[in-house]
Amino acid sequence: MADIDVKIAQWKLVEVGRVVLIRSGPYTGKLAAIVEIVDHKRVLVDGPSTEENKIVPRHVLPLSQATLTHFVIPQLPRAAGTGPVRKLWQKNEIDGKWAKSNYAQKTQSAERRKNLNDFERFKVLRLRKQARFEVQKAHAKLRAAAPKS
After folding, report:
1. For residue 112, with 0-12 CB atoms within 10 Å meaning exposed, 13-18 middle and 19 or more buried, which class applies?
2. Most CB contacts within 10 A, which of 13, 23, 46, 105?
3. In Å, what is the CA distance from 149 to each residue of 22, 137, 146?
């Protein structure tokens, strides 16, 4: 028999303590932690963010409206109240980790670009042209320095 090496999959599981991003409803774009699993389609979430405008009250959320993130609050007891969830949220620095994630940065960048006015869009266009020109100039210099074959 051959030796088989079994590895645990790195799936994002629905579990107590998993941080979710709410995709639709009145709390769209906000983070919350799963506090209790109601059934196979719904979870009880609580989002005690440190920022006032990102707080999500405790409510039942359908999983179809949530995106599971890679962040998990370890040792979060089942059906924990808002106080313990808030303490563990701050201890694990969930807001800071989320702000550093690629998804949050891309969303913030897209939001910023969406809110540009006409003149700011023009400035972005000019800066992109300048950057492209510099890259082409450097590339041409490298090609010229390369030995001919």
Report:
1. exposed
2. 46
3. 58, 22, 9
Indicate the pTM of the whole model: 0.74
Residue 4 in tokens:
């088989």
Q: How confident is the model at residue 2 (pLDDT cuts 50, 70, 90)?
A: low
The secondary structure element, H or E, covering residue 91 is: helix 82-91
CB neighbours of 25 closer than 8 A, spacing ≥ 6?
61, 65
User: What is the per-residue pLDDT across 27-52, written as a single tens digit (0 to 9) for each?
Assistant: 999 999 999 999 999 999 999 988 88
Amino acid at residue number 7:
K
> Which residues are 18's β-sheet partners?
72
One-character DSSP codes across 99-149: HHSHHHHHHHHHHHHHT--HHHHHHHHHHHHHHHHHHHHHHHHHHHHSPP-
